[in-house]
Amino acid sequence: MTTVDSFGSKGVLDVKGAEYEIFRLNKVEGAEKLPYSLKVLLENLLRTEDGANVTAEQIKALASWNPDAQPDTEIQFTPARVIMQDFTGVPCVVDLATMREAIQDLGGDPERVNPLSPAELVIDHSVQIDSFGNDAAIERNMEIEYERNGERYKFLRWGQTAFDDFKVVPPGMGIVHQVNIENLARTVMTREVDGVLRAYPDSCVGTDSHTTMVNGLGVLGWGVGGIEAEAAMLGQPVSMLIPRVVGFKLTGSIPAGATATDVVLTITEMLRQHGVVGKFVEFYGEGVGSVPLANRATIGNMSPEFGSTAAMFPIDEVTLDYLRLTGRTAEQVDLVEAYTKEQGMWHDPSSEVKYSEYLELDLSTVVPSISGPKRPQDRIELSDSKHQFRKDLHNYATQDEAGEGRPSKLVDVSMEDGRQFQLDHGAVSIASITSCTNTSNPSVMMAAGVLARNAVAKGLKSKPWVKTSVAPGSRVVTDYYEKSGLRESLNDLGFNVVGYGCTTCIGNSGPLESEISEAIQENDLSVTAVLSGNRNFEGRINPDVKMNYLASPPLVVAYALAGTMDFDFENEALGQDAEGNDVFLKDIWPDPTEVQKIIDESIDTEMFTSQYGTIFDGDERWQSLETPSGSTFEWDEQSTYVRKPPYFEGMTMQPDAVSDISGARVLLKLGDSVTTDHISPAGSFKSDTPAGKYLLENGVERKDFNSYGSRRGNHEVMIRGTFANIRIKNQLLDGVEGGFTRDFTQDGAPQAYVYDAAQNYAAAGTPLVVLGGKEYGSGSSRDWAAKGTALLGVKAVITESFERIHRSNLIGMGVLPLQFPEGENADSLGLTGTETFDISGITALNEGTTPKTVKVTATGEDGKVTEFDAVVRIDTPGEAEYYRNGGILQYVLRQIASKA
């Protein structure tokens, strides 16, 4: 790429004798008035200006940004690097491997398919909590992880050797976002370009929506689908509209009884209510300087739960102190300080920056909170938690009311080891300190340890039916637990370290003990999970658990002691001490001054340099894996983990013309807030499902099924699990939950698995559509939510509104995203989902124009015709190119092949 430099911005920055090429923002009029996050974008455009994809006009438009205007100007953002976790990373590498073969078929050199931007993959999503509550748990879970995932790990090791600029962090090292802020993030990047060392702001896109955690470090980044990440790795810029930026002012300080988790749950509720989908959020004001970096990261992490694209904190002394603590070199820290001050990107709370919208939070008003039972934004003050649980329980339990106005159903349980107890609705079956959101934050992790120490001193124990676990985001957490002496107290309550990975937060909670699971299923108990994570969607945490709550790490421990969500911490005792005195939560709650003292005494730079010095090496298991070689991968036709996907079959250098959609049937009719968790295969699955039947037919025993996430490299498993979430409600069926639909290819349109019906439609040559409501595709940026949709034969999704990433991913897979006319939805238009759909007007794309609307004609079984103009949600010219080519990967492949 040839840089044009229309503004003469290229210059040299001297940092203590070291020279770096930079692109100065002060050469562009208006740059100094931009919010911090837009300055990062402006530098990006200056550095990548080529007169074609990035033009002087785009740069001027960004520099003269009007905070009050609605986004209408497209720019091309080129992220500095790509970061992935293994669930989404494996299909990325599968696709890159497949592209190598496809370019060979088109007459090109397979080795031309390589990441052009640094790409790093952290294996953190595969560890499951099979063993818990004992010192041997972590070793046993690691053993099982390698047994389950050996095929995938060999494939990833091949990728690390076959592709340039691609690194893999092996299993057991930590959670991707925590590893990112503690080690991988550069804050300011350096790279040799044409023999000159260039410095520029670190930025990234990641195949996980919580990539935004790095926003707390002043790094602009957000989650994208795997297909978009692959394009970024291959040098394709991310098309985006210059966003609105919401200024969020922080004042005051967190009160003694509250934690950073309570702050982030409060901010999540505020921003969801305000509405920030598709916007940047930027924190500003005098109070920002007093927000610790770990708290900034906790807040940035939850950006997807707000709905925003990014949740940025600027760079200041707090940033530099964190970089020093985590072992970054003195030269790197000096560069970050000098570069950001030179570019006007250093935080100056006195400078006047205008934002599109404003919000403010006085941190002193934050109170202890949890959120649930199924969405992160549904915050509940802890003092009201028992009352709210009883209200919510009526949505999950239908038994006759008994005692204090709530359903009750006491069930006797006898365990093989002699434990005996009674389970009831609301029983806490899982209490897990997990997820990058909080395990990266010493203030809440140490608070959990201190609370455990205080509880043990009072003679309290976790209830015998609670599955307890700690899954830190990095090994440094264990180091400071050891040094502080708090690990022993956590172990005494059953909170042993079970692994270094996402575990419970992504559904890898592992099975409940069999007696407990059977009691829950046989008596239809509505039990609960409490976790210190960021996601608590229906069906996500564990198949036996209906109600899921997010809470701070110390509250996770507290709920393990209480054993039930039907508990009032202010007025009910957790137990009695040795003298028979009641012990309340306030009696064991950690003193924040003591917590800070322990942090200061227990965490040092050497912990970070020691743990991260060998981050890419892995343990003996990793190093002893057989590693295939060669520029193309030798696919194993017997593999049930890694298979060559069909995306490029029959592909030619020129794309086929776009055609209208005729005679389509509705595969699913869905309501509001259908998440990518509902759409994309995730968690475990049973042997009578299409995915289970496929594995059994291919010689896999039930005990070796593993999870959907671990089999993301096998499209055959993933297609069968798309729209198969146990809690999805398809309105084509009455009162049925799970992956079922009506099959209109059969007489009487009987109930069938979604996959089986889709196969019948494909055999009949019938295209498919999906009808949805508001916020379709919210949640994690799961690329398989789009890939599975496309491979099932869905040609269009018609909804009231989309979440940003999923809409983009649908286009990336050649699926047309449409919206009902403003104020209308399927029900208001009288659509039942039994109609046949024709969609016309999309062929305008063949002439190079993107239509604003297309005509949809729905013909009912009785002949009734309903017509409406659906809004086409192809928002940028770049997206139009992807759709014309049948998807983003096909577009990139043709671009590479054409330059051969």
UniProtKB/TrEMBL annotation:
Taxonomic source organism: Micrococcus endophyticus
The protein's Enzyme Commission number: 4.2.1.3
Protein name, as recorded: Aconitate hydratase
Domain Aconitase/3-isopropylmalate dehydratase large subunit alpha/beta/alpha, first and last residues per copy: 71-563
Class of enzymatic activity (EC top level): lyase
A Pfam family it matches: Aconitase
UniProt function note: Catalyzes the isomerization of citrate to isocitrate via cis-aconitate.
GO term, biological process aspect, one: propionate metabolic process, methylcitrate cycle
GO MF term set: 4 iron, 4 sulfur cluster binding; aconitate hydratase activity; metal ion binding; RNA binding
Keyword Chloroplast set for record: no
Aconitase A/isopropylmalate dehydratase small subunit swivel domain segment(s): 693-822
NCBIfam families the record matches: aconitase_1 (TIGR01341), PRK09277.1 (NF006757), PRK12881.1 (NF009520)
Coiled-coil regions listed: none
Cofactor: [4Fe-4S] cluster
Family: Belongs to the aconitase/IPM isomerase family.
Metabolic or biological pathway, per its Swiss-Prot or TrEMBL entry: Carbohydrate metabolism; tricarboxylic acid cycle; isocitrate from oxaloacetate: step 2/2
Record InterPro entries: AcnA_IRP_Swivel (IPR044137), Acnase/IPM_dHydase_lsu_aba_1/3 (IPR015931), Acoase/IPM_deHydtase_lsu_aba (IPR001030), Aconitase/3IPM_dehydase_swvl (IPR015928), Aconitase/IRP2 (IPR006249), Aconitase_4Fe-4S_BS (IPR018136), Aconitase_4Fe-4S_dom (IPR036008), AconitaseA/IPMdHydase_ssu_swvl (IPR000573)
Reaction it catalyzes: citrate = D-threo-isocitrate
